[in-house]
């Protein structure tokens, strides 16, 4: 059974015996434009109430997925289920989804109150209901008192709060956000990330969030769906993507990593090109003789005392410090080994580490369970 058949079975399991688990399901959904594939045939299930990020480089298909959920793009194949119902042919308006865009998409001639009231008015809500719901939404995004302002009289961060209020005001069961913080500076992004996370917790809504910022995705999400070239590269918790990447692309895209090429000798050993034998975490699913990559996260590399022979850290090497940089409370070293490899080391800055200088000789070590075998990229 190939991977996509297995995936499809998992999806079908989610649709039929346990429909309550899945809020959004893609069954074999794809999208092509004049023969150019934007999204390969995809199986995807978003759980009820979860915060799922679509992460990936530019052009990897993130917005395509979001817009197919919203109904703004018609798929070339496959079916879309929302809350158990096939909505493949249901027009966007009737899907009852909330949408937040990067460019805010506010109505410039309407003030804040009327912008937020807009989705309720087109649904024929009474004035009393509108007043109560807009008031509640304004409170949730901390904009009470701004009712009469026009969008142009507000900062980018405030305009996006209006965008979010307009989205949540009619309590959609699914909220879709496409790079909502993309136009804001770093500090404001951090602040609004916290607010979006809290909002999601308070409302319990299913939220699908597009970003190309891996830190943002890891920070916000219950699960991250990493896209690459119109396919899902990996779907998992932030922890799984970081510590158990399925391949080199994922290891490289999510956080920093040391990646070494080699050949699997047995379940617990990889021989790197040039003959260095590394002890690795159990390499289940790989065959002896297979070409693989070995990943060690820089914060898992320790600076060892010279002559250290601890059994817990079978992987050791000695090199010369090539570069040192301080990133916040972290210190980052590049250590050049005699064989030409470079090992990246990251640790919490402390006095001992701060005494290490460029050109110094340094012994490094890391544990076998932090030495992860992953699939090498093809070619
Ligand atoms: N209307 C269209 N016509 C033709 N090709 C399109 C169209 N819309 C998107 N594509 C192509 O589909 C692919 C996926 O696009 P998509 O917008 O989903 O990427 P993305 O991951 O959201 O990227 P970004 O981070 O740049 O927003 C891209 O190669 C893009 O050029
Ligand atoms: Mg996009």
From TrEMBL:
SUPFAM superfamilies: MOP-like, P-loop containing nucleoside triphosphate hydrolases. Keywords: ATP-binding, Cell membrane, Membrane, Nucleotide-binding, Transport. GO terms for biological process: quaternary ammonium group transport. GO terms for molecular function: ATP binding; ATP hydrolysis activity; transmembrane transporter activity. InterPro entries: AAA+_ATPase (IPR003593), ABC_SmlMolc_Importer (IPR050093), ABC_transporter-like_ATP-bd (IPR003439), ABC_transporter-like_CS (IPR017871), Mo/tungstate-bd_C_term_dom (IPR008995), P-loop_NTPase (IPR027417), Transp-assoc_OB_typ2 (IPR013611). Residues 24-254 form the ABC transporter domain. One of its GO terms (cellular component) is ATP-binding cassette (ABC) transporter complex. It holds the Pfam family ABC_tran. It comes from the Bacteria. This is Spermidine/putrescine ABC transporter ATPase subunit.
């Amino acid at each position: 059974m190939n991977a996509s058949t297995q995936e499809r079975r998992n999806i079908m399991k989610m649709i039929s015996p346990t429909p309550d688990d899945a809020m959004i399901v893609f069954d074999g959904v794809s999208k092509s434009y004049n023969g150019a594939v934007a999204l390969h045939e995809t199986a995807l299930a978003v759980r009820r109430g979860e915060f799922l990020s679509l992460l990936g480089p530019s052009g990897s298909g993130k917005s395509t997925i979001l817009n197919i959920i919203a109904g703004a793009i018609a798929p070339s194949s496959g079916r879309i289920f929302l809350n158990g119902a096939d909505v493949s042919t249901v027009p966007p308006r009737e899907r009852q989804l909330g949408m937040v865009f990067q460019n805010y998409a506010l109505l410039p001639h309407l003030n804040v109150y009327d912008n937020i009231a807009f989705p309720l008015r087109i649904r024929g809500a009474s004035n009393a209901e509108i007043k109560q719901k807009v008031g509640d939404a304004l409170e949730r995004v901390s904009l009470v008192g701004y009712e009469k302002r026009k969008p142009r009289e507000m900062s980018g961060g405030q305009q996006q709060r209006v965008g979010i209020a307009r989205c949540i005001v009619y309590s959609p069961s699914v909220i879709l956000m496409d790079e909502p913080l993309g136009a804001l500076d770093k500090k404001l992004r951090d602040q609004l990330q916290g607010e979006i996370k809290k909002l999601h917790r308070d409302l319990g809504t299913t939220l699908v969030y597009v970003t190309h910022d891996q830190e943002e995705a890891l920070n916000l999400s219950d699960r991250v769906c990493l896209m690459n070239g119109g396919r899902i590269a990996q779907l998992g918790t932030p922890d799984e993507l970081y510590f158990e990447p399925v391949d080199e692309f994922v290891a490289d895209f999510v956080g920093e990593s040391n990646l070494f090429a080699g050949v699997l000798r047995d379940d617990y050993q990889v021989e790197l090109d040039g003959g260095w034998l590394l002890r690795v975490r159990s390499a289940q699913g790989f065959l002896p003789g297979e070409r693989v990559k070995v990943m060690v996260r820089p914060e898992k590399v320790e600076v060892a005392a010279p002559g250290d022979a601890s059994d817990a850290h079978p992987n050791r090497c000695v090199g010369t410090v090539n570069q040192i940089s301080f990133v916040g409370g972290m210190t980052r070293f590049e250590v050049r080994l005699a064989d030409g490899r470079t090992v990246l080391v990251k640790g919490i800055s402390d006095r001992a580490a701060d005494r290490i200088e460029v050109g110094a000789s340094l012994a490094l070590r890391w544990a076998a369970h932090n030495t992860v075998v992953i699939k090498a990229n093809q070619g």
